[in-house]
Amino acid sequence: MAGDWIKLEKSTLTKPEVLAIAETLGVHRLHAFGLCVTFWSWCDDQLKSCHAASVTEKMIDNVIGVTGFADALISVGWLRRREGSVEIPNFDRHMSASAKTRALSGKRQQKRRHENDVKNHDSVTVASRSERDKCVTREEKRREENKDKQQPSSSDDPEDEILLSVPIADSPRVLNLTRKQLELWQGFYPKIDVLTHARECAAYLATNEAKQKPTEQGTKTYVNGWLGRKSNDPKFYLKPMETPSIYVQKTPPKPQKRKEFIDMTREEAERYVADEPKTSREIKMRLWERTQIAKAAEAGKAVADVA
């Protein structure tokens, strides 16, 4: 005997075996189910193993009180004949002490997990405002640090220029797509405008948080899949002779160093300023140059007075 209870699944009532036993005995399935429970309880009380020594089918019928019950169990595989005895299949799985220990342990684990889930939910719900503010402050600080790290210096390679940022799920971090990466994709998908469709993907993820990925690699894979799908649809193809925008939007060249007027003489300054500008750009340049000459004159490093 292994305790004062037996394992019983709620689906047992409608199992094919129970229905077959009911049909064999000519009784209702609820009656057949009750006979099986009575038999299993007797096994749990009287047997220590699957082998019921000296127990015959007739003895089981007498214990249960129904003739032919043992034969019905045998027909569905819930009882086996042996020489001068019978055997109960899967006895160790359902009625042994170890089986009941496993069942109780599983029940305790399930209850503990449920309690932990409730406790964690409550702890999150009752978090104080100050704790939330601290978390927000830490997140903002981390975001600023990442932003400082991601700021490219003026001396960086133009290929490392960040053209697009894609959000990452549940994180202040973003996936920064550089010109080099986008030009690489443009080579893989030459029929479409990669920069335009990558921007569409970033906008889609920014407005659909459920689609965002938790890692940079996962986000990059998602963008790559987005571009692959666009590349397979002819309606997104570039027009003939149309240049992808990744090649058009190159970084503008650095402005040339303007001529300094510190060492100019009065005659050189007057002759330079006397030239009439012909375009709006030249006008702006001339105004700037007049300002530089005036500053140089005030500093005593030039003799020109062009106020």
Write the layout of secondary structure elements.
Layout lengths: L15 H10 L3 H18 L4 E2 L4 H8 L4 H8 L3 E3 L2 E3 L3 H4 L2 H29 L3 H22 L11 E6 L6 E5 H10 L5 H14 L8 H16 L13 H4 L17 H9 L5 H19 L9
Antiparallel strand pairs: 1-3, 2-3, 4-5
Strand content: 5-15%
Largest sheet: 3 strands, antiparallel
Radius of gyration: 42 Å
Structural domains: how many: 3
Question: What is the molecular shape?
Answer: rod-shaped
Please trace the helix and strand order, writing H or E for each element: HHEHHEEHHHEEHHHHHH
Kindly, what is the distance between the CA atoms of the first and last residues, rounded to a whole number of angstroms?
Answer: 114 Å
**Percent helix:** 55-70%
Number of helices: 13
Q: Got a strand count?
A: 5
Class of secondary structure makeup: mainly alpha
- Would you identify the regions where 5 or more consecutive residues have pLDDT less than 50? 302-307
User: Order of strands in the sheet with the most strands?
Assistant: 1-3-2
Mean pLDDT: 76
